Amino acid sequence: AQSVSQHNHHVILSEAASLELGCNYSYGGTVNLFWYVQYPGQHLQLLLKYFSGDPLVKGIKGFEAEFIKSKFSFNLRKPSVQWSDTAEYFCAVNAGAAGNKLTFGGGTRVLVKP
Amino acid sequence: DSGVTQTPKHLITATGQRVTLRCSPRSGDLSVYWYQQSLDQGLQFLIQYYNGEERAKGNILERFSAQQFPDLHSELNLSSLELGDSALYFCASSVGAASGGEQYFGPGTRLTVT
């Protein structure tokens, strides 16, 4: 079965700091990878996705992620965070099975101090 | 606003009771997904429907059932409720059923079982 792990449960950083959130998945075949964000009191929104091609994917709001197949990783990065990036971030994988189910990691709560 | 609507926003009920959660997908989307988000289990896929037919099934309990109606809205029925069923239930929708399609999430229904 697929599984997704996010290494950090909580991250606290100051504005303008760089952010990197780790995500590892377990599945040997072709995968589709996603990062979703959930701002306080809001629904999940898609930040970026990887299906194939260039392993460096750019998303909305200045976020990017790098797919490293050999490491089964899909880490999320942002060079300079803002207070408005305070949110919970979820890595998700869709792989192999019929249908389009997403398997989510446990999430990382990010707090950006002004 | 993702275009996915869910009602009600909050639901408080007692153990042993039955509730129905409702979801309307984005206009044009044929697939509907249900996810459960709880503190101990995280975000878990429950079930996917595509154009009225069940497409994929996840960790959905036998006490839970879902359906998608001809107008494409979906209902998730939870019966014989237990304290552990308290969670946030998200609905998502996508255009197609195939792997990798972007899913748009609704605001969720928060269920509290007392």
Structural write-up:
The complex is a heterodimer of chains A (114) and B (114). With 114 residues, chain A is an all-beta fold. Chain A contains no helices and twelve strands. Chain A is globular and about 45 Å long. The relative contact order of chain A is 0.34. The model of chain A has no long low-confidence stretch (mean pLDDT 92). Chain B is mainly β. Chain B has no helices and eleven strands. Chain B has strands spanning 5-7, 10-13, 19-24, 31-38, 42-50, 53-57, 64-68, 74-78, 87-94, 104-105, 109-113. In chain B, the strands form two sheets. In chain B, strands 2, 4, 5, 6, 9, 10 and 11 form a seven-stranded mixed sheet that branches. Chain B has a four-stranded antiparallel sheet with strand order 1-3-8-7, with no helix packed on it. The N and C termini of chain B lie far apart (31 Å). The mean pLDDT of chain B is 94. At the A-B interface, strand 6, strand 10 and strand 11 of A face strand 4, strand 5, strand 9 and strand 10 of B.
Largest sheet of chain B: 7 strands, mixed
Give the low-confidence spans of chain B: none
Number of strands of chain A: 12
**Mean pLDDT of chain A, nearest integer?**
92
Provide the gyration radius of chain B in Å: 13 Å
Helix and strand composition category of chain B: mainly beta
Distance between the termini of chain A: 41 Å
What is the helix/strand order of chain B?
A: EEEEEEEEEEE
Q: What Rg of chain A is obtained from the alpha carbons, in whole angstroms?
A: 14 Å
Number of alpha- plus pi-helical segments of chain B: 0
